[in-house]
Design a protein that fits this description.
The structure holds 2 protein chains of 2 kinds.
Chain A (H helix, E strand, L loop, with lengths): L17 H16 L9 E3 L3 H8 L3 E3 L1 H12 L5 E5 L4 E7 L2 E7 L8 H10 L4 H9 L12 H13 L4 H18 L11 E4 L6 H11 L3 E2 L7 H12 L15 E7 L8 E7 L2 E6 L12
Parallel strand pairs in A: 1-2, 3-6, 6-7
Antiparallel strand pairs in A: 3-4, 4-5, 8-9, 9-10
Chain B lengths: L3 E4 L5 H14 L3 E4 L5 H9 L7 H13 L5 E3 L2 E4 L8 H13 L5 E2 L2 E3 L6 H11 L4 H31 L4 E6 L2 H4 L6 H9 L2 E5 L5 H7 L10 H13 L5 E7 L3 H13 L5 E6 L6 H23 L1
Parallel strand pairs in B: 1-2, 1-3, 3-5, 4-6, 7-8, 7-9, 9-10
The chains are: A alpha/beta, B alpha/beta.
Chain lengths: 296, 308
């Protein structure tokens, strides 16, 4: 049973400006729905959820962990474990009876995440697609220490110099990511079937293969795995009872975000102020009341 | 002789504030306490600490720096061992030496509480009073008074917490962290405040009957000898059945916590636990995402339980 129908799936490069990206997205949405649908609610998730939520008057502004779990459960209702490896975050979400009971996230270090793989791919002068294909062609992955990105790099150089084949090294990197994940984020968690793997790294077939080998089970990768968070927050927005006024006009409105350093005490909080056509509409980031910006 | 004693609002301050303040007040000693931690204090702390120090001790150095030119003596006691299986992190053994080596001009006022060296708490306070030029009689009176005040305050806090535990409508989360992190407005404060914003009642593992906690701690580990971690383990045992989830807050890189918290996550079953590691990086986005999603889980769990 599909709870929602996807009308438009696209990935927009942020280029450092999520507000601009959302405006482009809105134009595309407007074109896609072509007056056949009415927008009654908006939900946002991810790191810029608050900013975009303010812009779009969203009713649901939800963190990505909850959103991912809800999204995934709508597609794989009996999922027990969600593995997610993104650019700088990796997470494990444990589900029992359809609710999240436990999760863990990488703490201080981004070793073994997407950015690690992409920087190693660059070093080997491979683009990330080739990397994925090449990893699957190896039968004998090289052992690479992946506790730390810096050490992994020197280990990798060393292994290349003593003559390991490129595909073995590439497969070794994938294995290292999996080991690192299971030993850090997945430490102490019991990983039960069915396992769903998502996030950017799930597009890497080498890593999927290594997870399946290591966990000795099938690992599901949905073609929409990269937008599970969006699906989750859409479901939450759909559950909202009251409707919002939504207008595509905001694509013409100028949104501006300014980080202002508060000088009222020694904390010097950075207060994020969002301006809509030069009028302050929302502000956050202050640690105390002294820094509360006046919102009209 | 009007002498001013500076007390850094960090580390042991949060354990002994009721004791110290009342002791000095009774002896009519002028004291000045550094303000709540802020960005400037933290920055100074970073500047005057070695990299490997934990965030909490870096904060401490910032407070000492603040007091440098505002008092005649800075109060930095050495508390090493207060009883059987009641040892403190080595950091507390060496604080005054560290300060002495960093700020050579600072004059330090201290006492030594270490049962292995036959320095009981009372003996330690006696030494302290004598250093301030008071008579043994005066000191004893001040010590008894301060001790009484401390017990009263502790009881008040405990009663208040027990009252909060009675309310069943709100989510309750147990905060497990050293007092000097939990009650520091700049370190643990944002976590506690954010929980309140989410309409969650924070329960504190360190506000607990000390004797009971010391006994209950054995359920998780008999061997652990760090006094403050023992107390927190005990706090978990005492409160875990009456809260919806547990938040472990630790400052990077705390040695005792790295061991104790690992043990907690392995041995405390059937209760959602999240670990928040704080470092000197500003920016609360990571913390907010983690706490928000954690509270989501607790809310869904609680709703299910009611339905069942």
């Amino acid at each position: 049973m599909k709870i929602i129908k996807l009308l438009l799936v696209n990935i927009y490069g942020l280029a450092g400006n999520p507000a601009q990206a959302v405006k482009i997205l809105l134009k595309d949405i407007e074109k896609t729905i072509d007056n056949q649908y009415k927008i009654v609610n908006v939900g946002t998730t991810g790191s810029a959820r608050k900013l975009i939520g303010t812009m779009l008057n969203a009713k649901v502004v939800k963190n990505e962990i909850t959103a991912h779990a809800i999204g995934t459960l709508s597609i794989v209702p009996d999922a027990r474990t969600i593995i997610e490896i993104g650019g700088q975050d990796s997470k494990i979400i444990i589900i029992e009876d359809g609710i999240v009971t436990d999760y863990a996230m990488n703490t201080l270090c981004a070793a073994g995440t997407g950015s690690f793989l992409s920087s190693q791919a660059k070093r080997l002068e491979l683009d990330i697609e080739e990397f994925s294909e090449m990893a699957c062609s190896s039968d004998n992955p090289t052992k690479i220490a992946a506790r730390c990105t810096v050490f992994a790099e020197s280990d990798l150089v060393h292994k290349a110099q003593i003559g390991h084949k490129k595909e073995d090294i590439v497969a070794g990197l994938c294995r290292a990511v999996v080991h690192n994940y299971l030993n850090n984020v997945g430490k102490g968690k019991s990983i039960k079937n069915p396992v769903v793997f998502q996030g950017g790294v799930s597009k890497n077939k080498g890593v999927v293969r290594e997870f399946e080998r290591e966990l000795n089970t099938k690992v599901y990768v949905d073609e929409n795995g990269h937008i599970m968070g969006a699906i989750g927050v859409a479901i939450l927005a759909k559950q909202q009872k009251d409707e919002i006024d939504f207008s595509f006009d905001i694509t013409d409105i100028e949104f501006e975000t300014k980080g202002i350093e508060c000088d009222k005490c020694a904390n010097n909080c950075e207060i994020i102020c969002v301006y809509k056509d030069k009028i302050l509409v929302d502000a956050w980031g202050n640690k105390c009341d002294r820094g509360r910006a006046k919102v009209k | 002789m009007s002498m001013k004693v500076g007390i850094p609002r960090a580390l042991l301050y949060f354990k002994y504030r009721d004791m110290w303040i009342n002791f000095f007040r009774k002896l009519e000693i002028d004291i000045v306490i550094s303000p709540q931690t802020n960005r400037e204090i933290l920055n100074n702390g970073l500047k005057y600490s070695i990299d490997e120090s934990c965030l909490s001790s870096k904060v401490f150095m910032g407070h000492v720096e603040y007091l440098r030119d505002k008092c005649d003596l800075i109060f930095i006691p050495r508390v090493a061992k207060t009883g059987k299986k009641q040892e403190l992190c080595v950091k507390f053994f060496g604080l005054s030496d560290i300060v002495n080596n960093t700020f050579s001009e600072v004059k330090i006022l201290d006492y030594n509480h270490d049962v292995d060296k036959r320095q009981s708490e009372m003996k330690a306070y006696l030494d302290l009073g004598l250093k301030l030029g008071k008579s043994p009689m005066q000191i004893l009176k001040a010590y008894t008074y301060a001790f009484k005040c401390k017990l009263e305050k502790d009881k008040k806090r405990l009663d208040k917490q027990n009252e909060l535990l009675l309310f069943d409508d709100k989510l309750k989360v147990l905060i497990v962290s050293h007092s000097y992190n939990t009650y520091d407005e700049y370190i643990g404060g944002p976590v506690v405040n954010y929980l309140k914003e989410l309409n969650v009642t924070p329960i504190f593992a360190d506000i607990v009957d000390k004797k009971l906690a010391n006994k209950e701690a054995n359920n998780i580990s008999e061997k652990i000898y760090w006094a403050y971690n023992r107390e927190l383990l005990g706090g978990i045992e005492v409160y875990k059945d009456r809260v919806d989830g547990i938040i472990l807050i630790t400052t990077f890189p705390c040695g005792p916590d790295s061991l104790a918290n690992e043990m907690i996550t392995k041995r405390v079953k059937n209760k959602p636990i999240i670990t928040i590691i704080l470092d000197e990086q500003d920016g609360s986005a990571g913390m907010i995402t983690r706490i928000e999603s954690f509270i989501d889980i607790l809310q869904i769990r609680k709703a299910r339980k009611i339905v069942k």
